[in-house]
Design goal:
This protein is mostly beta strands. The chain contains 1 helix and 6 strands; from the N terminus they run ββββββα. The chain has a domain at about 1-60.
Length: about 90
């Protein structure tokens, strides 16, 4: 997966990079051998949903809003169940 844009809160999930703005697409090694189904981006957060329903989040985590206590710079597993991702019928 290629990522670029504002990385000031770690919302690109690229890890410990020095740049706050990534001007050219950069490969994310985190998702090697993982199949990303959906990506949701906000001002300070990003959510990745894998094909198997696993959810990873990265970005600003000042209030624990990412659903995990891990570093905000690399995507971390978020405690979201598959049923929470299924829209009501």
């Amino acid at each position: 997966m290629l990522c670029w844009g504002n990385a000031s809160f770690g919302q690109l999930g690229l890890g410990g990079i020095d740049e706050e703005i990534v001007l050219e697409p950069r490969k994310s090694d985190f998702f090697i051998n993982k199949k990303v189904r959906d990506v949701g981006c906000g001002l300070r957060h990003t959510v990745f949903v894998l094909d198997d329903g696993t959810v990873y989040t990265c970005g600003c985590n000042d209030l624990g809003q990412l659903g995990h206590e891990k570093s905000r710079k690399k995507p971390g597993w978020s405690a979201v169940s598959r049923s929470q991702l299924t829209p009501p019928e």
